[in-house]
Structures are given as structure tokens and as C-alpha cells.
Amino acid sequence: MSDRRTEPRVRTLHLVRDLATLDQALYETVTVTRTPTLDTALRRLSAAADHSKLSFAVAAALALRGGRSRRAAALGVAAVGVASAGANLLGKRLVRRPRPHRSVDSPFPGRHVPMPDSASFPSGHTASAVAFAAAVGPAFPVAAVPLGLLACAVGYSRVHTGVHYPGDVVAGALLGTGSAALVLAAAARLDG
Hints:
Distance between the termini: 52 Å
Strand content: under 5%
Order of helices and strands: HHHHHHH
Radius of gyration: 18 Å
Low-confidence stretches: none
Number of helices: 7
Shape: globular
């Protein structure tokens, strides 16, 4: 009887181990792939997304337009707040995954951004960028695709610059999507 209970746990542990192995392999593949044209652009994008600066700049531009775009900006900023709190106050403190190791002899050190002191899981940059895009999109549909592409680029830039594993980015995207859904549901409820 006890074998039946432990079997799902063992399978789960094997699945987690396999996912971690895949995550590491994907990260290593990105770190050894030569992409000189992308390196500078993605390093700059990653830095520009620090503290949600890109999202706040877009929100300011939307707010200045007024009307529906102003509401979209407010929803986006609220979603960034929820996602950022979820990533930094909960996720990183609960999981405490170490950042990727960047060796001194990295083949492309020019693509790196400074290594943050916080834990790696989940990617806060990705969570915030996805939350902003997912909250603004339904309220201001013309911005949905460009903001979605920007959020994807921000997420990839975090792996490309050596500060996150792909799994951190996926988790950040899920957190961002959930944060936007929470904010949109709360706004719909308030609208009655």
C-alpha cells in the first residue's frame, strides 16, 4: 500500500529533475550561441525594463491620450504592482532559486547585465512586462500585440543577458498573466 502512495511522489520528483535539466540545457544553449547583432539590443532592453521603466513610460503616453487609453494605463500600472509584489515579495522569497552561474570565461561577456542580488525565480521583469501587456490589451486592443511582443522580448532578454533561466521567465509570464486577470476582474467588479 505504501508503494502506491510514494509512486506519484517519485514520479513528481523525476519530473522536477527532468524539467530542471531541460531548463539548464536551454540556458546553456542560449549562453553559447553567438548573436552579436542581438547582444547590445537585448542588453539595453533588459536594462530599460528595470523597475518597469518601459511599462511606466508606455502608461504615461497612454494616460496623456485620455479616454480608454487612460483607463488601460491605470489597469496596466495596477497589474504591474500586483505582479511585482507577487514576484519580489512572495516568489523570490519562497523559492530562493540561485541565479545562473556565469563563468569568468563566458564566450560573450558583452551581452551581460549586472547580476541582481535577488533570487532567480520567478523573473520579476517578465512578470511585470506580461502583466502590463495583459492588462492593457483588453482595455486598449490596438496596443495588445505590440505590448505582447515587447513583453516576450523582455522575458527573452533576461535569459540572453545571463540573469535568468528560461523556467524563471515562464513562471514570470504565468504570474504576470494571473496578476492582469486579477486586476481586470477587480476592475470589472468595481464597474458593476
